[in-house]
């Protein structure tokens, strides 16, 4: 089965080697772009080649002329563009998976799809090298320090773990039965689940403790005296 688009993208020898290593074009199309990128990782003989393949997480795709022209091969690899090369070989793996499926379906037999994706990759590789963020370490700027000025109102801080625990402590505690019924079983009514839970000794003891605490709290509250009106006695006088 011919692979015109893959031949244009990678070159005929490398495309044939890639298909052979995968076990055929159908098997190659079944691979993900990451698995396709890892084909032939152990084929590098020299130490520099194995080290570069390990750093870039790729195998045979590192031999692609399109990739080596921009990022160099194992003999003349530039370590400053390591992150750019990692992103570039990942994009190359995705494009290879795309054109391989196109070759399997018989689309673009003249290789026009492979040529179009090749031009896109050239522009993407040049853009990766031009970006300054790729070669630099991923750092995050620190926030501007807050300077307190006398007379100004302080800014409200965001609630952290302490504030969350304080809010949870101020809320009313959830009853034991409510906690036990939070996980609802399918096919059983809520009343039946509550009845089964109340038959358990631990639930009944905890429920009795909560009820006793609630009654104690209510008994400590001072009851309000009934309002006394000075004209109540006059209403009972009959004329």
TrEMBL record:
Record InterPro entries? Nop_C, Nop_dom, Nop_dom_sf, Prp31
According to its UniProt entry, the protein's GO biological process terms are: spliceosomal tri-snRNP complex assembly
GO cellular component annotations of the record: precatalytic spliceosome; U4 snRNP; U4/U6 x U5 tri-snRNP complex
Disordered: region residues: 216-239
Q: In which domain of life is the source organism classified?
A: Eukaryota
Domain Nop per the UniProt entry, residue ranges: 2-130
**One Pfam family of this chain:** Nop
Listed PANTHER family: PRE-MRNA SPLICING FACTOR PRP31 (PTHR13904), U4_U6 SMALL NUCLEAR RIBONUCLEOPROTEIN PRP31 (PTHR13904:SF0)
**Name the UniProt record assigns to this protein:** Nop domain-containing protein
């Amino acid at each position: 089965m011919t692979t015109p688009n893959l031949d244009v993208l990678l070159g005929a020898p490398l495309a044939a080697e890639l298909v052979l290593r995968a076990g055929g074009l159908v098997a190659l199309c079944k691979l993900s772009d990451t698995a396709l990128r890892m084909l032939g990782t152990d084929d590098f003989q020299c130490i520099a080649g194995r080290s570069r393949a390990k750093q870039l997480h790729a195998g045979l795709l590192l031999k692609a002329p399109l990739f080596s022209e921009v990022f160099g091969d194992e003999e003349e690899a530039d370590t400053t563009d390591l992150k750019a090369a990692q992103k570039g070989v990942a994009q190359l793996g995705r494009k290879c998976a795309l054109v391989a499926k196109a070759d399997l379906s018989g689309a673009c037999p003249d290789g026009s799809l492979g040529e179009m994706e090749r031009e896109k990759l050239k522009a993407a590789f040049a853009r990766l090298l031009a970006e300054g963020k790729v070669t630099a370490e991923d750092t995050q700027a620190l926030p501007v320090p807050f300077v307190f000025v006398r007379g100004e109102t302080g800014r409200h801080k965001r609630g952290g773990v302490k504030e969350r625990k304080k809010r949870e402590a101020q809320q009313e505690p959830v009853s034991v039965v409510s906690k036990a019924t939070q996980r609802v079983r399918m096919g059983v009514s809520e009343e039946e689940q509550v009845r089964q839970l109340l038959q358990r000794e631990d639930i009944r003891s905890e429920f009795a403790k909560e009820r006793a605490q609630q009654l104690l709290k209510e008994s400590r509250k001072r009851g309000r005296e009934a309002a006394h009106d000075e004209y109540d006695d006059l209403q009972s006088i009959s004329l």
